[in-house]
């Protein structure tokens, strides 16, 4: 079984390898690529979706209220 000192040594070596590699640049490029693809696909965040869902819900309620008022006005005219 490995002791803590060996694990720390291995961990530090891995950090050194990753630090000197182009991995951080690759991650940035992949992130930018994915964001660009999501934008082209017109995807929205969950937060934006939830906001628009709430707006639609309120709009639907107002429409139903207006339809009810219109029905009452039409019924009075007859």
Automatic annotation (TrEMBL):
Pfam families cross-referenced by the UniProt entry: BMFP
Stored PANTHER family: UBIQUINONE BIOSYNTHESIS ACCESSORY FACTOR UBIK (PTHR38040)
Coiled coil: 49-76
InterPro entries associated with the record: UbiK
Family per record: Belongs to the UbiK family.
Function: Required for efficient ubiquinone (coenzyme Q) biosynthesis. UbiK is probably an accessory factor of Ubi enzymes and facilitates ubiquinone biosynthesis by acting as an assembly factor, a targeting factor, or both.
Protein name per its UniProtKB record: Ubiquinone biosynthesis accessory factor UbiK
Keyword Plastid attached: no
Keyword Signal among UniProt keywords: no
Keywords for this protein: Coiled coil, Cytoplasm, Ubiquinone biosynthesis
Annotated Gene Ontology cellular component terms: cytoplasm
Pathway(s): Cofactor biosynthesis; ubiquinone biosynthesis
Subcellular location: Cytoplasm
Single biological process term from Gene Ontology: ubiquinone biosynthetic process
